[in-house]
Amino acid sequence: MFATGLIVFRETLEAALFVGIVAAATRGLERRGLWIAGGVLAGLTGALLLAAGMEKVSVWADGIGQDLLNVGIITLALAMLAWHCVWVSTHGREMAQEARQTGRSAAEGTGSLRALTLAVALAVLREGAETVLFVAGFMSGSAGSGLPMLLGALTGLALGSLAGLLIYLGLARIKTQHLFSVTNALILVLAGSLASQLAKTLIQAGLVVHWSEPLWDGSLVLSNESSLGILLHALMGYDASPSGLQLLFYAGAIGMIWMASLQARNWQKRDRTDAVMR
Length: 278
Prior knowledge:
Blueprint: H1 2-25, H2 32-52, H3 54-58, H4 60-63, H5 65-97, H6 102-140, H7 147-172, H8 176-204, H9 227-236, H10 244-277
């Protein structure tokens, strides 16, 4: 029961924190609740379908079909987060100023909202499918009643969702003029976390062998299975034994997205200056 609850809590926490940060980042946009709820529903539906067909998926490409699918999901989600960070870097000020004028905010933020909704769907899809497979595996391998495991799974689901809600409520207390900067920074960290997971998945699939060995083992200080380790993994992709490739992907993703956002702001300033001079 405890093992099942811990696994479900960990997977739910990652998805719930993702959703909570996205919900805060899109505060003030019209119908953002419907967009995000649609992303969650699409992700859950996809997770169930994917879990049901995982046996067929796993045999693709000489047995690495599941890893290849995860690579595709993570890459697409990473691209959506990167696009949002660049977009907010040039529209965040306008979004903050017009947050109370729903019509204009919705018109300006629809593109970013669509990207984040897709990212939410992909996050829920990935974590949901893993949760279903873990729970099903535990229950099928248990000789006794599945009720304790089911209760553990439900407890983990509730606690993970609660943690995501608390994150959202905390972000919602930030003043609007600072909200987009804070949430954009959090989403940038989430992008780094996804990039690290992408590197790990590539290594597990045997698609990359360079820099695949762990650089250190910090499990004695802070293990991946500890409460703080689980929380830090969900928030910023913490790994007690990261490989060189994971660190490269993590730092590289954050660095490239930050540089692209900075360049986008510079272009916007240049365009505004040219428009004034004309």
